[in-house]
């Protein structure tokens, strides 16, 4: 299978490096020419969970040089960077698939707006990764990769199925799901309950479990988000809360993507995560005061670290 990973952030680098190291040919497309040049020169260093480091010599090129032909494009850019990638995606071969790995919501509308629904696959990924430099990524926690079409389809997608096998051979835990929408909602609930708190308190995921105060805040965020999800037809149960606690435990050393963004002075995905819940809550007449508060607080913190809040 011809595979292209789009995005030189933590998730893109993790997938590209592990797939390449298991013998799969893979190319990495970065948003900046500078990073592509550095990767072409140095390859990617992957720090594995056991602390050992491996070198992955990955061919890389910037997005502005266009997308090479492939069977599958792993779209590993943030929601906030999606708009700048969309026009390049409209030129991919008609038989190719795009696997969207975004956190939050909003990407479904954008991607299906330019590609045929049969070309679009969606993923929910709870693997923890940290970008240490443009050529260095650390794998910081095990998780599960679920992927498939957004809505239930009559037939299993052959490229999606082949990628599930490939990902499992590369050491990921991957499963094919016929209908990703419920999992996207659950991932949204997890990100909305974990990420803003880690970003505001500047702590790794696992530390949320260490204080009754953070546990309480996380639980309140979960309950508000669950009420919104239920209003949109998702049946949220106690097990879904337990799953969020498990994600924190399994990625305990991980610095959440939102905290990584704050630390690197990048725009966060808080609008696509907590902002989405506030918006959907408003449309359904459901108040979401906790999500509104963390949304404002993360936006403020983001401005402050960028020096705009002074
Ligand atoms: O998806 C994540 C993120 O950081 O965005 C989790 C699973 C919470 C891992 O940190």
Automatic annotation (TrEMBL):
EC number: 1.1.1.169
Keyword Calcium: no
Presence of the UniProt keyword Oxidoreductase in the record: yes
GO molecular function, one term: NADP binding
Any Pfam family hit: ApbA_C
UniProt catalytic activity: (R)-pantoate + NADP(+) = 2-dehydropantoate + NADPH + H(+)
GO cellular component: cytoplasm
Catalytic EC class: oxidoreductase
Domain Ketopantoate reductase N-terminal: 4-151
Domain of life: Bacteria
Any single biological process term in GO: pantothenate biosynthetic process
Role according to the record: Catalyzes the NADPH-dependent reduction of ketopantoate into pantoic acid.
Family per similarity comment: Belongs to the ketopantoate reductase family.
Name of this protein: 2-dehydropantoate 2-reductase
